[in-house]
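Quick log. Single chain, no ligands specified.
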Amino acid sequence: MIEIAARLFLEKGYHLTSMDEVVHVSGISKSNIYYHFKNKEELAIGVIKWRISLLEQHIDELVRSKKSYKEKLNKMVALISNQECLDHDKGGCPFISLYLQAAQQSPRIHTVIKNFFLEQVPVVEEILQSGIAQKQITKAIDVRKTAKLIISTLEGALLLSEITADQHYMDDSLQTLTALLD
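-> predicted structure:
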């Protein structure tokens, strides 16, 4: 049910997806859906949390890997801006799409997405620390501020990529950030 709702929100948008449509496409009874989610906002939050849990599993594995910090940053960006972000025929990036469509009307959706990105700052800090420890980053940097810059740039690049349907914002941003750290 969550996967179907995620696909519908991405393809049709938050506002154009109804609970009745989720019921119809999923084949799950209305009472069963409403047992788990009292309304569309709750369902959207469930979708976002589901996506976040999948991402966090991959990001955790990535941080523990033996890859270089550049490989880790590249992979983290690829995970967050997954292939669905590149497929603008299906609605764009799940986080940014829901953020743009629903966050103004749903402070809870806004908070869940905001918290996900804020929680990535310590993850990026850890990646940067590994780059310093492995002598891949030789410049003296403030790790916390640099991690915040990377997350802010990632959020901005995701937004611009979504609005313009141009993935180059993501690619160029990551290349520039890693070049600055060399």
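Confidence is low (pLDDT under 50) at residues 83-89.
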